[in-house]
Amino acid sequence: MTQFLKNILPFNNRTEMPTVLFVVKKILAFWLCYIAGLFLAEGVVILLHFALGKNMFVGDVFDPQTITLITYYGYSIISGVAVLYWKRIEKKTLSEMGLTKRFGNYFTGIIVGILLLVVSVFAIVLTGNMEYRGLFENADPLVIILFIGGFIVQGATEEILCRGIVLHTLKDKIPTWIAIAISTSLFIIPHWSSLFEGSTIYGVIGVANLILISIIFSLLTIRFQNIWVACGLHSFWNAILYCVLGLNLSGKDETVTAVFHMQSVGENIWNGGAYGIEASVITTVVLALAAALIWYRNRKRVTAK
């Protein structure tokens, strides 16, 4: 039993063990970093409230917009925990996590994200289920910049956990498609609670789209041999959707400020209803075609193991 625990518990850098135990160990490492980071981040939020004269325990809290920004920037604590774990316990370099010197791939990810969003939104507009209503009224440039910064932190954190600690480690030990499936499952679980708050159909489509975008993140990580491209795509998909186009993001409340004012017409599977275009079947088609194209051009790397 002692040896078994030494093998699976993520508090050492042992790798000589059965493959199944190694996989379990990496899944536990993901949850260790995620939960420990969340716990520390919550502590910082509480301290921040009290430091600024607010008492969370009696309902005296910041406004929703400030809370959202604090939440996004709080992801930096989770990233810090993940990097600390990687360097101190795994005893590996950041390059081995996928944070290589090829930072330029981050901008490749941004371009891919823009293309996927533009095609998806334009297709929905053509169906008449979304419309452009001009520039966003009373747009606040400072708030937009702050939100973009928050999305940069949040997107990078999720990629460090899912594609860095999990995929980048497992793909050399098990068949690549299984490593992608595991990292995708771990990517979906934290998003699960918001997926089925409304109609079940939007939740099902949302899950399908999360699977597809996660596969795209993973395939690009394998193609470029780093996670920068996934970080850029992930962060700026969210930032452009919310801060530029002014659309609902993952079922969250209506956009507070943005550059443009795009709006869904009614609620249906074409525009994703209250959840937004991430629960749209049109987005499903776009992401599926993109995933198939990336896989086809990258199939030798993916099927090599």
Structural commentary:
Helix content is 66%, strand content 4%. The chain has 305 residues and is mostly helical. It is globular. The chain has helices spanning 2-8, 19-51, 64-88, 94-97, 105-126, 141-170, 176-188, 192-195, 200-224, 228-244, 281-302, and strands at 130-135, 260-264. It is built from 11 helices and 2 strands.
Output the keywords.
66% helix, two-stranded antiparallel sheet, 305 residues, mainly alpha
- Spell out the helices and strands N to C: HHHHHEHHHHHEH
Sheet/helix structural class: mainly alpha
Low-confidence stretches: none
What fraction, in percent, of the residue positions are helical?
55-70%
**Count of beta strands:** 2
Rounded average pLDDT? 90
What's the multimeric state? single chain
Strand content: under 5%
**Amino-to-carboxy terminus distance:** 32 Å
Q: Radius of gyration in whole Å, from Cα?
A: 20 Å
Judging from the principal axes of the Cα atoms, what is the shape? Answer: globular
Q: What profile does the largest beta sheet have?
A: 2 strands, antiparallel
* Biggest sheet: strand arrangement: 1-2
Number of helices: 11
List the topology elements:
Layout: H1 2-8, H2 19-51, H3 64-88, H4 94-97, H5 105-126, E1 130-135, H6 141-170, H7 176-188, H8 192-195, H9 200-224, H10 228-244, E2 260-264, H11 281-302
Antiparallel strand pairs: 1-2
